[in-house]
Known about the structure:
- It is built from twelve helices and 17 strands.
- The strands form six sheets. A four-stranded mixed sheet has the order 1-2-13-10, sandwiched between helices. It has a four-stranded mixed sheet with strand order 3-6-7-17.
- A hairpin with a 5-residue loop joins β4 (about 150) and β5.
- By secondary structure, it is of the alpha+beta class.
Amino acid sequence: MKLSNKQIRERIEDAQSLPMLLLEAKDYLRLFYQEQSLPEAQLQERLVEIYHDYRRSRTYWQTEDELIYGAKVAWRNSMRCIGRIFWESLRVRDLRHLTSAEEIFAAIVDHIQQATNGGNIRSTISIFAPDVPGQPGIRIWNPQLIRYAGYRQPNGTIVGDPAQMELTELCQHFGWQGRGTQFDVLPLIIQMPGQKPQLFELPPEAVMEVSMTHPDYDWFAELGLKWHALPAVSDWRLEIGGISYSCAPFNGWYMSAEIGARNFGDVKRYNLLPTVAERMGLNIRSKLSLWQDRALIELNRAVLHSFTTCGVTIADHHTASAQFMRHWHQEAEAGRMVPADWGRIVPPLSASTMEVFHQEMQNVCLKPNFFQLPVPWKGWNRKQSFSIGSTLNNSQLKQCPFH
Ligand code: ARG
C-alpha cells in the first residue's frame, strides 16, 4: 500500500497504530527537536523519512546529531551516576561504520588514549554499529575496558580482583597467560554478531596506572597497590530512539570512593581493610575500635593523594555530592527532574556528611538511557573455539602491532 506523506503524518500522529520502534523514535525525536530548538516542520519531515526507512528495513539510521545528543541525554538519565552535571560535555565518537573486531579494537585503544589524555581525563563514548533487529549485537565481554585479572590459587585464596575470576578463567581457557600479579590487565574479548569471540591484548603504554602512596604513612607504598586511571564501562547498551547500541563503551573519571572504598575495601574485592588497619596499629579484634572505618578513610586519602600527585583527574565524594546537588537544581530550572537511584548515588562512606544523603530521590527510567547487558558467556559452550586475533596462538599475541 502506497501512502502519501500526509497519510504517513496522520499515522505517526495516531500512536496506537505505530510499532514500538517508531513510537520510541517519535518520542526521542520530539525531545531532540525541542531541546535543540529545531523547527517543528523539520521534525515532521524527519519522522516521515524514518517511517520510510522503517518500512524498508525494520529499523532506521540516526543522523550524527541525533546520535550525539542522544548519548548525552542517556548520560543525563543515568540513575546511578553522581557525575551527571557534566552531561553536555560528553565527547561522542561515531564509529558506526566499523565492521571488524580488529577495527573496533584499534578504535578502543584510541578511545582509551584520547580519554586518558595524559591524566586530564575526558568523558568519552565510542558508539559502534547499532544492533540489527532480531540479531545479537556486537559485544565486548569485559565489563570494563580496563580490569585486573583475578586468579584462584590452589589453596583457595585469590590473587588479583576476585570480581574478574570467571572472565580471567575464560581468557586462560582460550590461551591467554597472565603474569599472575595482583594487577594484570585483562585482554579484551570482542565478539561480532554470529562470530567467535576474539581476544586482543591492550598495549601497556595505553593503560595509565597510578601507584598508591599516602600523604602521612610512608609504609603505604610498600603495600604495592595501584589502580588504573580510566573507568570505562563496556557492558551496558545505549538505547536512543528505539535503536540499541550494545557496543558503546563510555568513560568518566573516578570518584575516589569507587577505588578506596569499594575496589580496595570490599571483602569480595581486594579486601584490604584488615591489612591497612594492622599496619596502622589498630586492634582489629574489637569492632569498637572502628578499625574498618579508620582504615577506609586512610585508603581513600591514599587514592586522592596518589591521583592528584600523578596529575590524574579524580573527584572526592564531597565535591561529587555538591556537584550532583548543583545539577539537581539546574535541571529543576530547566523544567526537568533528576531520576536517581539513592542507594547508588550516595557515596559508600561518610554518607550523612553529604547533601545527597538527605535528598529524597525518584528512581525512574527515562530514555535515552543505558541498560546493563547480560553476562555474554552464560550458555557459551567452552568447547567452542576462540580466536586470538585470528588464531589461537598466544605467542602471536606478542606480535600484535602494538607490542
Ligand atoms: N565503579 C567502577 C570501578 O570502580 C567504575 C564505574 C564508572 N565510574 C565512573 N566514575 N565513571 O571501576
